[in-house]
Amino acid sequence: xxKRNILCIDLKSFFASVECVERxxxxxxxxxxxxxxxxxxxxxxxxxxxxxxxxxxGRTRVYDIPKHIKYIKVPPRMRLYQQKxxxxxxxxxxxxxxEDIHVYSIDEAFLDVTDYLRLYNKSxxxxxxxxxxxxxQKTGLTATAGLGPNMLLAKVAMDIEAKNNDDNIAYWDYxxxxxxxxxxxxxxxxxxxxxxxxxxLNAMGLFSVGDIAKFDKVKLKQTFGVMGLDLWMxxxxxxxxxxxxxxxxxxxxxxxxxxxxxxxxxxxxxIPIIIYEMVDxxxxxxxxxxxxxQGIGFGISYSxxxxxxxxxxxxxxxxxxxxxxxxxxxxxxxxxxxxxxxxRKVSISLNRLVENTQVQLNLFESFEEIENKERINSTIDxxxxxxxxxxxxxxxxxxxxxxxxxxxNKIGGHRA
Length: 416
Hints:
Layout: E1 6-11, H1 14-22, E2 32-34, E3 46-47, H2 49-53, E4 72-74, H3 78-93, E5 101-105, E6 108-112, H4 117-120, H5 124-139, E7 143-148, H6 151-160, E8 169-171, H7 195-203, H8 209-213, H9 217-224, H10 226-235, H11 243-252, E9 256-266, H12 271-288, E10 291-302, E11 309-320, H13 323-337, E12 343-351, E13 354-355, H14 367-387, H15 404-410
Parallel strand pairs: 2-4, 7-8
Antiparallel strand pairs: 1-6, 1-7, 2-3, 5-6, 9-12, 10-11, 10-12, 10-13
């Protein structure tokens, strides 16, 4: 397996730490909570490390904080956090080129320092230590770093171990897979496994990362599609993603994208209908313009009062324009990263597009099954093209949480 020198750097308790620095307070001795002070039952966006040591989690209801704990309550300032994030990225760019940095979120980034160690005459550990020190000196913010031979192991080293070490740095190698990675439990502690995915895996009798690593990868793929295979590989410490490849893909890929701002809060119980309707729209466009896709980007944005969200990409093992396949991948990503907060925007992108000149087969469907799907989709497309987009809808589109009929009307869903 290829061995790179990857750093995964995270800013500790980012929002709360920024607020402390702005007030000349020490986040390690100050009880500060970032939340909407006007909202009853507000969710904390961040708490200082001081409060975390007292057992207060970063995403909890304000009224769940024990009454005997006194704390400072401040409103979120997203523009300030974005500005500070840019300052930190600027510090990273003082050490390595932009093409070797992948910004994962507002407070986290991956750095591929493989080609810089000889330049600085430093080990990856020494370079990480220098970068963290520079971040603190210039911004007052404390960062942690996970080091590894690939992005997966660097990320997990940071999540599981670095934040508990005195120097805020941890290194995991392939030799640590069985002794460290496989021991991770509960599963939601593992990068890429959220609470909803954890429940599904627990129902299969899988309770630790090692359980998944030893499980039949064919059964995982049959259950979760291509992402089941990715899950198995990650649980075995395998990650073939390269930062430069991610950067090049962002620049070169032709894609079809669709995003929807929602006019009320959605949650896990009613967002699937929105996701499926959006996927269906994109797949109709794929078929109309005679394309297949092999890449999916899926993102959720939370309510403005809370801020944040996630956006993740996934490469498929076969080209497709099948809404059911793409929907399952989107829901897999959703189950991995959603944290039970109010949703106000959904974004989906289909990329790695290829002209549809041939039927794409896979191991789990016969030619007849694929041909039948194509025939059904073609019939549906013909009806909607002739009689309007609202002429043929799924029964779920009549539910109150559906938005497809209204959106179709606004863009010419009916035809005379």
